[in-house]
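Async update (no meeting this week)

Hi team, since we skipped the sync, here's where things stand on the single-chain job. The sequence we agreed to prioritize is pasted below, unchanged from the tracker. I ran it this morning and attached the output directly underneath so nobody has to dig for it. Comments welcome in thread, and please keep replies under the output.
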Amino acid sequence: MRAMSWSEQDSRGFLDLGDYYVPQRERQMAIIGDLVASAPSPRNLVELCCGGGLLTRTLLARFPQARMHAFDGSSTMLAAARKQAGQHADRLTTRPFDLAAEDWRSLPFRADAVVSSLAVHHLDGPGKRALFRDVAAMLAPGGIFVLADLIEPTTAAGKAVAGQMWDDAVREAALARDGNLAAYDHFRDDEWNLYNQPQPPDSIDQPSSLIDQLDWLREAGLETVDVHWMYAGHAIMSGRKLG
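Output:
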């Protein structure tokens, strides 16, 4: 069972296996990019928990006038993100942070887009609610918050479907990439699929329901709140700051 912490060893493991573990990863990044493109003149982009930098690189390549401010709590991930940026590294600023803390939430600029992928589910419900409110305050008028994350199904049947779909997605990715199930076996051995086993009280994973998160986005003052993609217990949602 996953504990209530994330180690540098976890970071190294995810860098090696993330392409297997994240369903439709390239499709997700394309959708996020399309949503960021809907912001007026996106120049200051913020990624919360940038991981190894695949989304950071994608957005820097798509928006050549933009600067990316990438935050992560792992030094391993930040180093990987800087390397991943390649020729775009001069437009990347990285910063260590604690997602749950509040000391980083007053930025010296207004963000045209704030994005996050597979991280906010580490906060409990009140933590998400507070984060959404603070992200809304970071945004410039017309700015957008795009959240790609795990959600908590509200029924046992929904949880079973999400768990099976996630298993199937990782299994298919392993066979397509390698012709064997080694990566899928790692996924199962690491008990990464939180939908397929009970979670301990100190679990690092604390997903909230899709309905709750949409309500919290609206409560934070964001408009045109919507869901753009959902698969295997993963969803992409967004809200925009009007004005």
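Quick observations from my side:
The mean pLDDT is 95.
The chain has two domains: 8-153+203-240, 156-196.
Reply here if anything looks off.
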